Amino acid sequence: xxxxxxxxxxxxxxxxxxxxLGGYPEVAADTRARVLAEATRIDYRPNQLARRLRHxxxxxxxxxxxxxxxxxxxxxxxxLLAALGPSLQRAGLDLLVMSARPGAEELRAYRHxxxxxxxxxxxxxxxxxxxxxxxxxxxxxxxxxxxxxxxxPRPYAFLDIxxxxxxxxxxxxxxxxxxxxxxxxxxxxxxxxxxxxxxxxRDALATxxxxxGPLRAAEPSEEAGFTLMRALLxxxxxxxxxxxxxxxxxxxALHAVxxxxxxxxxxxxxxxxxxxxIAGCTDPPLTTIEQPIARAGARMVQMLxxxxxxxxxxxxxxxxxxxxxxxxxxxxxxxxxGIATTTPNPVQGGRHDATRSDRA
Amino acid sequence: xxxxxxxxxxxxxxxxxxxxLGGYPEVAADTRARVLAEATRIDYRPNQLARRLRHxxxxxxxxxxxxxxxxxxxxxxxxLLAALGPSLQRAGLDLLVMSARPGAEELRAYRHxxxxxxxxxxxxxxxxxxxxxxxxxxxxxxxxxxxxxxxxPRPYAFLDIxxxxxxxxxxxxxxxxxxxxxxxxxxxxxxxxxxxxxxxxRDALATxxxxxGPLRAAEPSEEAGFTLMRALLxxxxxxxxxxxxxxxxxxxALHAVxxxxxxxxxxxxxxxxxxxxIAGCTDPPLTTIEQPIARAGARMVQMLxxxxxxxxxxxxxxxxxxxxxxxxxxxxxxxxxGIATTTPNPVQGGRHDATRSDRA
DNA sequence: ATTGACGCTCAAAACGTTTTGGATTACCCG
DNA sequence: CGGGTAATCCAAAACGTTTTGAGCGTCAAT
Lengths: 360, 360
Fold this sequence. Notes:
Order of helices and strands of chain A: HHHHEHEHEHEEHEHEHEHEEHEEHH
Oligomer: homodimer
Number of strands of chain A: 12
Number of helices of chain A: 14
């Protein structure tokens, strides 16, 4: 089960065996054939531990999952993981995954991977405006590709989705539908993506000479979306449309809407962001912004491979557009009269009867 | 940045330096102090590649995610990943993650990890009744812990949740609530957990001398739950209660129910399985069965560590109970009269009357 | 016949660590 | 003083691979 075993059996040197298997040209054809035959006979697999030491490379890259209560189970990361698989396999790279809570524990994980030479490079996602992980990696001259940007001025490799443009477009769509009070349920604003999405929303409102609508932010979970939306609806001057920075927030918001006896897409418009699988089968199906996570993951691996081959990080960045997927959760702004008729029927009282009477 | 560097600088041998840092007793106190000082001065970190080769262990374990359309993004695995983190860190193990489609690609991933000596052991989840992964690992004498069982008679280490008991209890609960036609929306039956859950459901019905209700199965996704539930509701003899083998199925089913103009928990009872975060904020909140994924993940790591230390796989298996969490999606079976009162006002009419008249 | 080139092969070094099997002192006790 | 023992330390081997530098025939060109 080692080169030496094959060498001994064929009365060759390990050098020749190594070269025969490695496909080097300076080995005689019949020798190579003999080696190959013996190798398949004993089902030889090179010991990765040995070749890694020899090469000084671990042939692996790392990814640290945020194990935060709010993020816990965010489908984004699982989709990213699944997307990474094939590209990594093609590049011959393994993937080391750790989970850590943002903060000191998170940085320990990065140090563990990078300084223990467990990985040749890192991938990271959900960048933050001031991101200590990127700061650390830049300080150490480590190789990495970020999904999203941060505000560190130094050059680094990243792939980002243009959240500003996407949310500007989504907000403009709502404005075009006649909405004048467009709210935003945002993720925590220290996330760069949340900052961008908010910026797009502000842009569109400012361009249309509309006041910025109500803004709420929290960790992007269903619960948070539910709570924040309920709060928005209870306000005196509730918005007629709300942009949600993630689909998880939007799903929660959708529940708050239906629990309030309102009908999304008619009484109030909702637009999400991510196009999670669940977005297609909510009631009504969620209008949302599609993020090409799978393609992004694949491209990030390509960029990382380029960096490992010596490419300049300053040349490795791309910003991709996102695509709005119109479904049923948004629609024309209700007129004043319209709002009056869509409020719950006082006779029936129950919230779900109201929903039905809306439809009838 | 290596033992030799420290040794050279302090005029010691690498042996002594290694021992000083490793905490071996045969090194003088002041020597050790000097070594430690120098080590921290140059921020020495042992090269993992080297020590792994030397030890013949990779200090890592592997996990292969199913990258199947239906499973894509199943929160189960992300929760498992997050749960594994702390335990693995404590055990000094890294986690290698691959993604592969079930079938040949999946087995290639296992061979890649195991035969390339990239990992010391494997974790696997979502076992199947006839599980080629377990067969492979057993054939190769590889070390692994399974979450769930399979039908291979050979002894192996596993941790399972007692789905039979849980689903029996859930079904009994529905029966006690007066339901006589209790359906099951199951995951694909080649999954062991689906088989178990079905068995619990059958047990309870048989014990209560009730006919087995309608049974449907598919990959456990929201869409599938939606589609199957809609089909069940359209049947002539629709069930008054439906047990769903996973929360994702239940969430889809919930949407089908509300889209049919029915109210879960009153017109029809639904019970899920998993207690996903989303289960708490559906409308109504989902009665479900809690699976202690986090604790299970931690325990599986413990078992794996025991195996790596030489424990006998035959001694490493546990079956844990699951806990039913009553929330709002189930309730008393509607009486004939009761159904009439809870059906929507006939004046309002609508497309779902057909379904309702079946049940009336 | 000598030189050079080519084809094939090998021994040895290297990667950085841990471990084995001494070696060298110093010390104590008889 | 000799012999045993403890306390320190070290050189070298080992893990299994890749790579370096060189060796040795054979053959063609000089």
